Amino acid sequence: MKVRILPDNITVDAQAGEQLLEVISRAGLLIDASCGGAGVCGQCRIKIEKGEVSSELGIQQSEDEYKQGWRQACLSRIKTDLEIFIPEDSRVEREFVEQKHLAPKGQFLTEEEIANLNPDWKKEPPVQKLYVELPPPKMDDNRSDLQRLVRGLRQRYGLRRVSVDFPVLKRLARVLRENDFKVTATVVRTRGEDDTGDKDLQRGARKPKLICIESGDTRARHFSLAFDIGTTTVSGQLLDLNHYRSLATINQFNGQIRFGADVINRILYANKPGGMAQLQKAVVDTINEIIEILLKKTGVKRNEISHITAAGNTTMAHLLLGLNPKWIRLYPYVPVANIFPPVRAQELKINLEEWVHLYMMPCVSSYVGGDIVSGVMAAGIYKRPELTLYIDIGTNGEIVLGNQEWMLTASCSAGPAFEGGGIKYGTHAAPGAIERFSLDPKTCQARYQTIQHAPARGICGSGIINITAELLRLGFLDQNGKINLNIKSPIIRDGPDGPEILIAPAKETSIGEDITLREMDFDNLIRAKAAMYAGFRTLLSEGGLKPENLDMLMIAGNFGSYLDIENAITIGLLPDMDRNKIKFIGNGSLLGAKLVSFSNELLDDSEKIARMMTNIELSENMNFMDNYIAALFLPHTEEKLFPSVFPKIQQGRSGENPCVRMLKEVKA
User: Fold this and answer.
1) Residue 169: which CATH number?
2) How far apart are CA 488 and CA 485, in angstroms?
């Protein structure tokens, strides 16, 4: 059977009874399916133009939509040849769009300030290019080519006990003789073959391993790659190892999105027949796409790259390396490994030369991964006495509390709401995503702003937070996230799923529909923010501390970097504390991966940090559940925890806000 996909005009072969979502994925198209094809998010919406499918009404669909031919791809099985249409709001843009940062001046650390967070490390990359000029062999000196090279490296650079990657031997004789025994050897510092990583190495004491040999002196061109493998976004940097700088950065949505928005859905999908291979291929394809863009953008050649470092949560690390993550989600939550041996990039189908190895940042536990270790290392928390709370806000929110003496860490599954998942008109941070919202105090008309000022196509995670905070302050929402029907306003109305707020009318959108937020959308956001807030409140209480005891609250991650601090505090996502103590460092995971590429010492420090952290398992912690339930309100059940927020909410309720007062007068 054939499935023709519009407006792409792509035709794909399919089998009778095959799930339509899988066919679309096989065509190489990224379609939103944050629930992993379980049929509950309603985001994989498509329209049947010709042909038949066996399908059922989705829980997010109306009967009118169903009669018009709209279906959920995950709930549809092919019966005949098909022609389908995939609307813009069901798609995921390949390239992640960085939004303009909204933090007040001084909260977002400069590059110089970030560099000073982790001082005192030796600039010595784990992989180095070493040039040697060797004496050609003679009858009285006819030792083997390998012995000659190893001896030259020992005499010139003091290298001892050098091991050799076998592929080097295959080209050694030819390369030595191409330029009269003048060669560049690429050497990586690594653990011994029998070292499982269960103990600390002396800082910088890794053993040298010869991985590449090149004719002539190629030291001037030496590069590395650093990656943050996020559940939603993959970020890659091309690094100049000679000048210790980043040449270019590219962000793209993780191709695994179509298999589920969070790690639990990915783990479940991995254990379906063929699921593991599909997930690994999806993230590797994303990495390869980023590499191609970086090479084209910088003019660097593929054979000039010697090393790749990657950081990700524990599930992302397992899926990239092809390790079964099944036991991560099952009690007692055991990963295959926390510290991974280097793996040849080509074994993972990453399009780099055969000598390039991938180093995966070490993890702490099943749900505290290498991304948080990388971020803590970049932030230098393990070197400073100041008490720091480090938060990476996202689908799999991770938290660290501590300083140079101790660190507690935890992970709380906030779900996909911060990425637009579980929200009817939620979308990723792509052009047309609504990110800002306000009500004009004079006219009471709704105003919104989209990314790149494109026609509205949905609401991104930061936009949902900003809208919720504005509606709460104005009294349009109560603390339970319920819409105030006592206010007569053109943006408040009854929808097919109950009361809803009109954010953008159909005539202004690119999808031809009104973009709204329902009470169940606000419920999903409240549950997500409650999980994050309860997570760090629990860590603080485990340490006998309160937010006012903190010297710094550090916010990291792609999503966290675009938070409006006041709005995040207004809804109860962040604690109501001294704003001067709140700092952004951007993508801490990528920053740490970059630093590890520049310093063999920091490579060792990352493993030290992983062992230094004490993991608190929140799913087994009753204190967390109490904190979570208390946080299921806007901003919280306890007014004393948000002293700057509640007066603003009271003002909105009392009608002192001119917009609310005007609307009440109109109703009267």
Assistant:
1) 3.10.20.880
2) 7
Alpha carbon distance 371, 473 (integer Å): 35
Domain that holds residue 30: 2-90
Residue 288 within any structural domain of the chain? no
Judge if 79 and 154 occupy the same domain.
no
Last residue of a domain, one of 215, 237, 252: 215
pLDDT digit string (tens) for 194-247?
455 555 555 556 789 999 999 999 999 999 999 999 988 899 999 999 999 999
Q: Which two tokens stand for residue 42?
A: 């309603």
Report pLDDT for 379: 94
List of residues 6+ apart from 48 with CB closer than 8 A: 69, 70, 71, 76, 82, 83, 84
Complete edge-to-edge strand list for the sheet that includes strand 207-215: 127-133, 182-190, 207-215, 163-164
Query: What was the pLDDT predicted at 438?
Result: 87
Mean pLDDT by 10 residues, the chain (668 residues): 88 88 81 72 84 84 83 89 85 56 60 82 93 94 94 94 93 96 93 53 72 96 97 94 95 90 91 95 97 96 97 97 95 94 96 97 94 95 96 87 96 82 86 87 78 90 94 92 89 92 93 94 95 95 93 86 88 95 92 94 91 91 95 95 91 64 51
Q: Radius of gyration over alpha carbons of the chain, in Å?
A: 27
Kindly give, in sequence order, each residue whose CB lies less than 8 Å from that of residue 40, ignoring residues fewer than 6 positions away: 59, 60
Give the Cα separation of 368 and 387 in Å (integer): 20
Number of Cβ atoms within 10 Å of the Cβ of 347: 12
DSSP string, 98-148: PPPP-PPTTTB--HHHHHTTS-----B-SEEEEEEEPPPPBTTB---HHHH
* Ramachandran region, residue 365 (left: φ > 0; alpha: ψ -120 to 50; beta: rest): beta
**For residue 486, which amino acid is it?**
N
Instruction: Count structural domains, the chain.
Output: 3
Rounded alpha-carbon distances, angstroms, from residue 174 to 39, 186, 216, 245, 303: 59, 16, 12, 34, 18
Residue 393 in contact with residue 555, Cβ under 8 Å?
Answer: yes
Residue 664 has, within 13 A of its CA and on its CB side, a CA count of 15
Q: SS3 for 300? A: coil
Identity of residue 33: A
Last residue of a domain, one of 215, 238, 257: 215
- Bond into 332 cis (ω within 30): yes
Q: pLDDT at position 97, please?
A: 47
pTM for the whole thing? 0.85
Which tokens in the block code for residue 644?
A: 């700057």
